[in-house]
Amino acid sequence: MGTSQILEELKISDGGYTEDCFSVLSKRLVEFPEDTLCILNHNKLMSDTDFEALVITGIGAELPYIGAAEEKDTLYKYLKSISTDEEYAEIASRILDEWLSESDGS
How far apart are the first and last CA of the chain? Predict the structure, then answer.
């Protein structure tokens, strides 16, 4: 199932698949950060601000538990390296903020 399909499942689910969807989205972000950010940035479902906030919060909550330390370090550095004028800057920054707030326990 592709990232767009996961977003569609999440949008229509009654909450039963949310943790699984966030887990898969987080794993994809760790494995394929640029591709995943591209899909998250351009998927029409993400134009719904409430849904976008749900997705970003869910991914941020899952990231502390996904992947090895080295993979997470690589993703962290990648997200931090995206400059403010790049296409994915806003969504990368929001995901990073959520991830860090989850990691800090706040």
Answer: 32
Residues 19-52: pLDDT tens digits?
788 999 999 999 999 999 999 999 999 999 999 9
- Phi, psi of 52, deg, nearest 5: -60, -45
What gap in Å lies between CA 15 and CA 17, rounded to an integer? 6
- pTM of the prediction? 0.86
Q: What is the DSSP letter of 82?
A: S
- The HSE-up count of residue 16 (CA atoms within 13 Å, CB side) is 4
Alpha-carbon distance of 106 to 11, in angstroms, equals: 26
Record the tokens describing residue 79, joined without a space: 């997200």
- Taking alpha carbons only, the member of 27, 92, 97, 35 closest to residue 66 is 27
Calpha distance 32→12 (Å, rounded) = 25
Q: Where are the domains of the chain?
A: 3-103
